[in-house]
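Retro notes
What went well: the complex prediction finally ran end to end.
Inputs used:
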Amino acid sequence: MSTSLLARVADGRKALVPYITGGITADWTDYLLACEAAGADAIEIGLPFSDPVLDGPTVQEASDRALARGATVASILADLSAVTVGVPLVVMTYANLVMRAGPAIFCARLAEAGVAGLLVSDLPVDEVAEVELAAAEAGLALILLVAPVTSDERLAEIARRASGYLYAISVMGTTGERATVAGSAAALATRVKAVSDLPVLVGFGISSPSQAAAAAEAADGVVVGSALMRRILDGATPGELAVDIASMRSALG
Amino acid sequence: MSPMTFMAEPVGGRFGDFGGRYVPESLVPACAAVAAAFRDAWADKTFRDELDGLLSVYAGRPTPLTPASNLSAQLGISLWLKREDLAHTGSHKINNVLGQGLLARRMGRTRLIAETGAGQHGVATATAAALLGLSATVYMGTRDIERQRLNVHRMEMLGATVVPVTSGSRTLKDATNEAMRAWVADTERAHFLLGSVGGPHPYPWMVREFQRVIGSEARRQAPVVPDVVVACVGGGSNAAGTFAGFVDTSSRLIGVEAAGGAAMSNGAPGVVHGARSMVLQDDEGQVAEAESIAAGLDYPGVGPEHAYLGAIGRSEYRTVTDDEVVEAVRRLARTEGIICALESAHAVAWVLRAAGTADLPAGSAVLLTLSGRGDKDMHTLIGGTA
Ligand SMILES: Cc1ncc(COP(=O)(O)O)c(C=O)c1O
């Protein structure tokens, strides 16, 4: 499956993809509805893992809080099954949760819950074969990461194997709010676009509407995670979060 | 598959179904660079000579193989101790850090990043950094900082920066997470100096090779091929280095885990810290928090080569409790005049329990790697924080 999950990108629209940690509050799926209403093109849902090595303090805190509340993969997927969100949902998580269930079962459960795509942070293209097969069988898009240090050779292989969209990590580091968007982001997005027809989203550290607009210039859109999760951790309601997302949306044009 | 895999580079970092390189894309090139550099260095006589020189005139190798005569007589076995406690800095960790330190310098890196539990690997890293003119940042859980304070002072004396880690169980697992996060942000300048045989390829292979010196020396020093070779297992590096010297003999290979951190004995296959191996975890794959009096064994995972050797039945794993371990430190101290580390005492505790049983029949020749000395644990042993 090599089709885009972001249909409107084809019309020149810059995509906005918020990231929400699954199970962060009892009625966390209200945040998904708020994202949709405020103009999100897709939503990444983090399945919290005990040892998120690619995440900075904000997503770590969100993961810990969700797990401490008793959120599980099963409960998060059950919550998703109970809502109807009108934009594609992508699960972002770590390899051990996928491997523990078994890739085929894990992917089938995601598909049953209405999820459209899967991104596994610590599953580089070299290790992805088993999950790639399982995702394809379940009809899930497989989103892969590219980084500023990814060689042209690896980039070509990643572009060939990915589907849904490609996720360009803006900066060498973990997720987390940052004051500026690294120059490496635009350079990477340009390299990726040169070798793939899939939409290219820039993520990691996009914290404000102006940063979103800047990051999306060379790319097809942005993923915004920690900045939103910080607001949720500090108590923002779905309505308040929608205001933030709407201002990012309008900055993206 | 033959245990000969213990000799060669594992293809793709795989030990049977275990190992691999499960890291974010941003770390793949850095891991590949370490693998290429190590492959090259390990085949380079100049590098090997320089490392051997340091191991000898700096670290004090070869370490002795001491017959534990009094304890042997009491237990009705022949017990030899491979004395890694006598190596510079007080544990086997020095073998690995000198190797990786030289490699980091050869790669043009200027900074070492490490995780530590007991602080022995942190002290060893700080030592190598001082010797080789590199800077060192060591991540350590706050629970371990409390119970291994002596080693925190040693690291700081050596000029390293110790960064307290407050996430999760505040022990080795969480320190490893932080060290990996720090590495992603500084792969150009920094070498991640992982302290055991876990982690993404090439670490399990490379660290085993740097620790192989324990087993090679012991094999030469042992008057007989032992019936049993035993070592404690946290991540499994002192055991892997020891086993490497005996894997092609008839010796039984026994790894001893902490009852509260027994990935081999109580875990299931899983992916944590870059490798597929045995992991303590729940039904959905959330990694469990280990619980051991020995900070260096307080870890829910284990190196993938152990998972493989266990799966094919070449090595066996046992567990001992905190109480048995404390008793083992005392018993060894009073019979042989050697105060060993709480980690190393796990191997001793198993010998004390098993001697004379079917698991370790009377008359057995036993070679035990005493991975470190116990100075750091005095506070815990006299009733302080555990
Ligand atoms: C003295 C000593 N022995 C053993 C260990 C456990 O490590 P490994 O299993 O890698 O040898 C440690 C770790 O800190 C240690 O300090």
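What we learned: The interface with chain A takes residues 12, 20-26, 28-30, 167-168, 173-174, 177, 180-181, 184-187, 268-274, 276, 279, 281, 283-287 of chain B (CB under 8 Å).
What to try next: split runs per interface for comparison.
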